[in-house]
Amino acid sequence: LEEIPRPIQDSGNILKQGYLEKRSREPSFFGSEWHKRWCVLTQRNFLYYANEKSKQPKGSFPIERYQAHLDPQLRKDSRKKCCFQLLCPGKRSYEFTAPSPAEAQDWVEQIRFLLRDLSSLTIPCDEDEEDEEEEELSKDRDSSDSMNNSQNSTLNPEEPELEGEDIYEVMPGELPNSQ
């Protein structure tokens, strides 16, 4: 079996990572309902692992359309100000406890920032990509014009232009090729 590459290794794709306590879906009769998990927020997904060195996530979900908010009602103990929740209509909700109230706030802010970015109508692109797009557009324009001035595009810049070529200027009132 080939191992699936872990997103956790792609540090350029990771927006935030760290230990959080995640509430399990079914509270266990024998153990705690909160489990420490290594959590990773990427540009598209939220993943959680048993620990920092785990190769396979215990779970993951696309973060798009989720909402993040602090929720002190999730716990009754001293860590209630460290709790936040991820909700999405029609999908499973996730409840977490961060190591501190400030860390919980940071997770919520990072997720909200990402969600705003994902829901924006414009897709940011690098300047290099814009330049490439402009070059392609000008190539398209050049190729559509090439029927009219094919000789012009093949002339060597050092060579003087020869008279009688198909390079001409249309004067007002004149029709092209009415020589």
SSE topology:
Blueprint: E1 14-23, E2 34-42, E3 45-49, E4 59-62, E5 67-70, E6 83-87, E7 94-97, H1 101-119, H2 127-145, H3 150-154
Antiparallel strand pairs: 1-2, 1-7, 2-3, 3-4, 5-6, 6-7
Short description:
Keywords: Cell membrane, Cytoplasm, Membrane, Nucleus, Phosphoprotein. The protein has a 7-stranded antiparallel β-sheet, with helices on one face.
At CATH level 3, the topology of the domain at 14-26 and 33-121 is PH-domain like
Into which percent range does the helicity of residues fall?
10-25%
What characteristic shape results from the CA principal axes? elongated
CATH architecture label name of the domain at 14-26 and 33-121: Roll
Strand fraction: 15-25%
CATH class call of the domain at 14-26 and 33-121: Mainly Beta
CATH superfamily of the domain at 14-26 and 33-121: Pleckstrin-homology domain (PH domain)/Phosphotyrosine-binding domain (PTB)
**What is the helix/strand order?**
EEEEEEEHHH
Largest sheet: 7 strands, antiparallel
Quickly count the helices. 3
Question: Widest sheet: strand order?
Answer: 4-3-2-1-7-6-5
**How far is the first residue's CA from the last residue's CA?**
75 Å
Strand-pairing-aware structural class: alpha+beta
Spans where pLDDT lies below 50 across 5 or more residues: 1-10, 146-155
Mean pLDDT: 77
Count of distinct strands: 7
Q: What gyration radius follows from the Cα positions, in whole Å?
A: 30 Å
